[in-house]
UniProtKB/TrEMBL annotation:
Segments passing through the bilayer: none
Pfam family, one: zf-MYND
Protein name: MYND-type domain-containing protein
Entries under Gene3D superfamilies matching the protein: 6.10.140.2220, Tetratricopeptide repeat domain
Organism: Brassica campestris (Field mustard)
Segments forming domain MYND-type: 258-300
UniProt-listed InterPro entries: At2g35280_TPR_dom, At5g50450/At1g67340-like, F-box-like_dom_sf, Sel1-like, TPR-like_helical_dom_sf, Znf_MYND
Keyword Metal-binding annotated: yes
Source organism superkingdom: Eukaryota
UniProt-listed PANTHER family: MYND DOMAIN-CONTAINING (PTHR46758), MYND-TYPE DOMAIN-CONTAINING PROTEIN (PTHR46758:SF9)
Gene Ontology molecular function, alphabetical: zinc ion binding
Keywords attached to this entry: Metal-binding, Zinc, Zinc-finger
Length: 330
């Protein structure tokens, strides 16, 4: 018989884990949505560490195959074996964005060009526009090999496919190739048409960026009064990797001068220099065009041009006009 003054014993575990009661297909659906829409890797991993079941299901190929570019945006500062394994899991799950990201990291940062190019090729086969364009840059420059490894026709073919899929840098590169007859029969009219199309798409993107900037989007900045979009995650990784000093480039190797690129040379004199000042170099015409509009236009001028202008009393505006003509003639 229970004593009247005896207090009933409280249950030790009053917390009920309702997650265990949910069916797997519902949890998979939630995690797939999260992996595709997370704004950074931490948003995704903070959910996985909640419990063992979420961790197990969150690393399932059905979830990792849908991981978006921001979920895969591992930073150079936090790069580790665990981050490498995570990207490999996503690659094995068939995620083409992961193939591209890990391919770029292996090719340029981990100095494994064979594996890196192979991963980018896996993404390119699935019509991944940035991977196609990156492979075209590699073919144009002969990156990872010697100067004789350049394959202009292959570069043009990859660039054309990427341009067809809407990649603006590839569209601009293809336009210049047609204008110059670089790796393809010369067609000035078609080249100009593609350049106009690339400029129109870039203008539309700039207007969207400007509106986002005015509405308080913190991912955008202004440079020289122009809205500049945030660097793409993979290019940001490359830039931060080499800026941090984790890997020191061999003597004579240079980085692409466009701040939003991050690609390094894989051999001496791989990238083309500015034919006017000779102080900057670019991995592609796309990077050259972007850097010219954002920054280099205000910096580029040979010393003898300024001396001559001062001697004859030519104004700054006339000097800028000469610079533009020199660049257009390249």
């Amino acid at each position: 018989m229970t004593h009247l003054n005896k207090k009933p014993r409280l249950e030790k575990n009053l917390t009920v884990n309702h997650i265990d009661d949910l069916p797997d297909d519902l949890v998979f659906s939630i995690l797939r949505k999260l992996s595709s829409s997370a704004s950074c890797p931490a948003d995704f991993f903070n959910v996985l560490i909640t419990c063992k079941r979420l961790n197990r299901l969150g690393l399932h190929p059905l979830v990792l195959s849908r991981a978006g570019t921001e979920t895969l945006a591992v930073t150079a500062e936090k790069w580790s074996d665990s981050a490498h394994r995570f990207l490999k899991l996503c690659v094995n799950a068939g995620n083409i964005d992961a193939c591209y990201a890990l391919g770029m990291i292996r090719f340029y940062c981990l100095q494994n060009p064979v594996s890196g190019a192979s991963l980018m090729a896996r993404a390119a086969i699935k019509s991944h526009a940035p991977a196609l364009y990156s492979l075209s840059v590699i073919q144009f420059n002969g990156s990872g090999g010697t100067k004789s490894d350049k394959n202009l026709r292959a570069g043009v073919a990859l660039c054309a496919r990427s341009a067809y899929l809407g990649h603006v840098d590839a569209l601009r590169e293809l336009g210049h190739c047609l204008q110059d007859g670089y790796g393809v029969p010369r067609d000035v009219a078609e080249g100009r048409r593609l350049l106009i199309q690339a400029n129109a798409r870039e203008l539309a993107g700039s207007l969207r960026s400007y509106l986002s900037l005015k509405s308080g989007d913190e991912t955008l900045t202004e440079l020289n009064g122009l809205p500049v979009q945030e660097i793409r995650p993979v290019n940001r990784f490359l830039k931060d990797w080499f800026d941090s000093g984790r890997v020191v480039l061999a003597e004579g190797l240079r980085m692409c001068s466009h701040g939003g690129c991050g690609r390094p040379e894989t051999r001496s004199h791989e990238f083309r220099r500015c034919s006017v000042c000779g102080k900057v170099n670019y991995c592609s015409r796309g990077c050259q065009a972007l850097d010219w509009r954002v920054k280099h236009k205000m910096e580029c001028a040979p010393l003898d041009l300024w001396v001559e202008a001062a001697a004859v009393g030519v104004g700054d505006e006339d000097v800028d006009a000469v610079e533009v003509e020199n660049h257009a003639a390249r």
